[in-house]
Specification:
Blueprint: H1 4-15, H2 18-52, E1 60-65, E2 83-84, H3 85-94, E3 98-108, E4 116-118, E5 121-123, E6 126-130, H4 134-137, E7 141-145, H5 150-154, E8 159-163, H6 164-170, E9 181-184, E10 187-196, H7 205-208, E11 211-215, H8 216-222, E12 228-229, E13 231-236, H9 242-256, E14 267-271, H10 272-315, H11 317-325, H12 330-368, H13 384-411, H14 414-419
Parallel strand pairs: 6-11, 8-10
Antiparallel strand pairs: 1-13, 1-14, 2-12, 3-6, 3-13, 4-5, 4-9, 7-10, 8-11, 9-10
Helix pairs in contact: 1-12, 2-10, 2-12, 3-9, 10-12, 10-13, 12-13
Domain MacB-like periplasmic core: 21-249
Protein name: Multidrug ABC transporter ATP-binding protein
Pfam family, one: FtsX
């Protein structure tokens, strides 16, 4: 499209005052560098946060019974009620597109009294009565043995899966765990597995391992819970939203327990899908802010290039007049100025991308030797699509930077240009 002479002229024009060109290019370099670093930092934060949700069924909610806040069918407000095991099947039958409905019961806790004994060692731990599906709803790695299965549920087996921190607290180093017995509130349970899992929501990773899981039926039998269900974990099918389905779940509970249909306080819940959607929305906003800030910084560099190109056009007024006198068309003059502007913008911008890539490579190499399993920042990077977008931004910016100088150049009359000293 352009001759060799045109490119030689561009190189000569930009290198005639190399220090001025370097300072001008730095503005664009810095703008692209900031843009890439901000986007990579946003991705690193997103990767770290989503790592905390890895393995968890995010399309889930957790629900528990609270106090009825309205009278209904002769029953007073302020009364308490409990979920029942029959509610689980009723929810499964009445609400479509549910994947799991897992009842849970719980006792103890690390802030409470010691509730688990093994020999002379004691500890205070959270103990959960669960169904096998719960392992699909919360992240957990079985490090030895197995988790609860439906044979355990049907036969009311008193078996337990303990966390790595429970193992450390109740067993000596190297001691065999599987097949041994622990006593939970005076009831013996045989250990059939150990697990390790991540903390959620920025919690203490150590406390996430201080939990014990036993079959729901054995829990109810051992601790006289009867048909009572403490709370439930409910997960929707892929393609459905638990946020949209939860009102139907609440309606089933309200109908079965004679709760006023408009009583929104009787059923407590934590909608994990809703919170996860908010987090996704936050990262979209962060990316938008990164683009906004990066483009503003880049704009300052573009203004610098535009100013320099105006100076260059002024310095080459006589040259432009001669070219016009020899028959150069306005488009040829405009194209030459625009090409110089685009060339300078792209070269400086790509240098910024290379510099940012080097910084990100250094950060990732430093993090490679670290344990990032519990970090909120992981693998800061940008994909090739971001580089492509940056290239488009550079080309458009170069056109904008050279547009006004190019228009000024073609307004110069050959006679006036030749008179210029």
């Amino acid at each position: 499209m352009f001759s060799r002479d045109s490119w030689s002229e561009i190189i000569e024009a930009l290198s005639s005052n190399w220090f001025r060109t370097l300072l001008t290019a730095f503005g664009v370099l810095w703008g692209i560098f900031i843009l890439v670093i901000l986007l990579a930092a946003g991705n690193g934060l997103e990767n770290g946060v989503k790592q905390g949700f890895s393995g968890m069924a995010t399309n889930s909610m957790f629900m528990w019974s609270q106090t009825a806040s309205k009278p209904y069918k002769g029953l007073p407000k302020g009364r308490r009620y409990n979920f029942k095991i029959g509610d689980v099947e009723a929810i499964k039958q009445s609400v479509p597109n549910l994947r799991y409905v897992s009842p849970r019961n719980q006792l103890g806790g690390f802030r409470g009294a010691n509730n688990v004994v093994r020999g002379l060692k004691t500890g205070a731990y959270n103990v959960y009565g669960d169904y096998p599906e719960i392992i699909q709803q919360q992240p957990m790695d079985i490090t030895s043995g197995r988790f609860v299965n439906y044979s355990d549920i049907k036969e009311n087996r008193k078996v337990a899966i303990i966390g790595e921190s429970v193992k450390t607290g109740l067993y000596d180093p190297g001691e065999e765990v599987l097949g041994t017995y622990i006593k939970i509130n005076g009831v013996n349970f045989m250990v059939i597995g150990t697990y390790k899992k991540k903390s959620q929501g920025g919690g203490d990773a150590e406390e996430a391992q201080k939990e014990i899981f036993v079959p729901f039926t054995a829990f109810s039998q051992a601790f006289n819970m009867g048909e009572v269900v403490g709370w439930m974990a409910v997960t929707a099918q892929d393609g459905a939203s638990i946020t949209e389905l939860k009102s139907q779940v609440f309606d089933v509970i309200k109908t079965r327990h004679s709760i006023h249909p408009d009583d929104d306080r009787a059923v407590g819940n934590f909608d994990l899908y809703e919170e996860f959607s908010k987090i996704n929305g936050l990262f979209i906003a962060l990316n938008a802010v990164a683009y906004f800030v990066g483009i503003l910084v880049l704009l300052s560099g573009i203004i610098g290039i535009s100013n320099i190109m105006l100076i260059v056009v002024k310095e080459r007024t006589k040259e432009i007049g001669i070219r016009r006198a020899l028959g150069a068309t306005p488009w040829a003059i405009r194209a030459q100025i625009l090409l110089e502007s685009i060339f300078l913008t792209i070269i400086s911008g790509m240098a910024g991308i290379v510099l940012a890539s080097g910084v990100l490579a250094l950060v990732n190499s430093l993090m490679a030797g670290m344990d990032t399993s519990e970090m909120m920042f992981l693998n800061p990077s940008v994909d090739i699509g971001v580089v492509f977008v940056a290239l488009i931004i550079l080309i458009v910016s170069g056109l904008l930077a050279g547009l006004i100088p190019a228009q000024n150049a073609i307004r110069i009359k050959p006679v006036d240009a030749l008179r210029t000293e």
